[in-house]
Write the C-alpha cells for this entry.
Amino acid sequence: MIRIQQVDKTYRTRTGEFQALHGIDLDVSKGEVFGIIGRSGAGKSSLLRLINLLERPTAGRIFIEDDDVTHLDGEPLRRLRQRVGIIFQHFNLLHSRTVEENVRFPLRVARNLSKTDQARRVAEVLELVNISDQAKKYPGSLSGGQRQRVGIARALANRPQVLLCDEATSALDPETTQSILRLLLEINARLGLTIVLITHTMDVIRTVADRVAVLDHGRIVESGKLIDVFLNARHEVTRALLSESGIAADRSASAARGAGHVLRLTYQGETVQSPLLTRISRELGMDFSIVEASVGKLKDTPYGQLTLELSRQEEPRFRQLLAALESNAVRYEVLQ
C-alpha cells in the first residue's frame, strides 16, 4: 500500500540546515497496522506527514499503491488526501462548529456528494466511532476521548484507504488511550483500512501494531514483525524503549547468582500456556532456578521470557536441555 524509497527530509532554519530524515526505506502492506516509534525529535512526525505530502521530501520517492505521489500538486494532491486520512494529537477540530459539522467539513471540501448523501455519511461514521449522541454538541463540551473520536470520524468521512495517526493518544489518559486503540483495531478489522501510527510509547505499539519500525535521529535502526522486534531487540534504543514498557531487553547475566550456565528463553503462542519447563525438567531430571520472568501479550500473541540459572552439577545435561528447547520452538540465548 505504501512504499517509501531512500527518502531524506531537510529543513532550512535560521541557523542553517537540519536533516530530519536520512535514507528512509519503508514498506507498509495493505490492511496492516504499522507502528513507528522513537524518542522526541527522532523524525516520526516528519516521516508520517510525508505520506500525504503535508511535508515534502528533499530526496527520494513515495508511492501509494503503484502511484508515485512524490511531486503531486493541485487537484491530484487533493485527491490523494481524500485517500489518506489523518488524525492528530490535539484533535484539530473547529471549535465554532458542531460535531457533525466538523465531520461534514472534508465532504464539503471534496464536493463529491449531495447534501443528503453527506448527512447520511456523517451519520454512518459517527455511529462507527460510537459518538452519534454527541452530533449536535460543540467540541468544547466533549471529553478528550470524545474529541478524538470526532477526529477519527472526520478522517474516515471520505472513505480513505490509509489512516495516519499522529501521536493520536498521547494527550489522553491511560484508560481513554486503551478505548481509542480498541476503536482503531475495530476500524482496521471492519474496513480493512491500512493504519500507520507514530508514538513514543511502546505500550501503544504492543497493543495494536502488526509490524514496527524504530526511528532514531532520523534513521530506521530496527524494523520487522512486532513480536520479532520486541522479543529479539538488537538496537540499544529499542532495548531502552522496551525496558520502559516492562519487557526485559537487557542481555547481560547480571541477575545470575552462581557460576553455572544462564539462559534466556523466549517463547510465544500456545507454548506460553503449557507446563513445558516442568515437563522438560522431569524428563531430563534437571533442576534450575528462575532468575527473572515476564509474560504478556503483543497484540493478540501471548509471549513469555524467562532467565534460568543452572548449577554446575547440571552441566552433563546442558546440551540435552538445549535440544529439548529447540524441539519445542523455544528461542534461547546463552548469557553465561
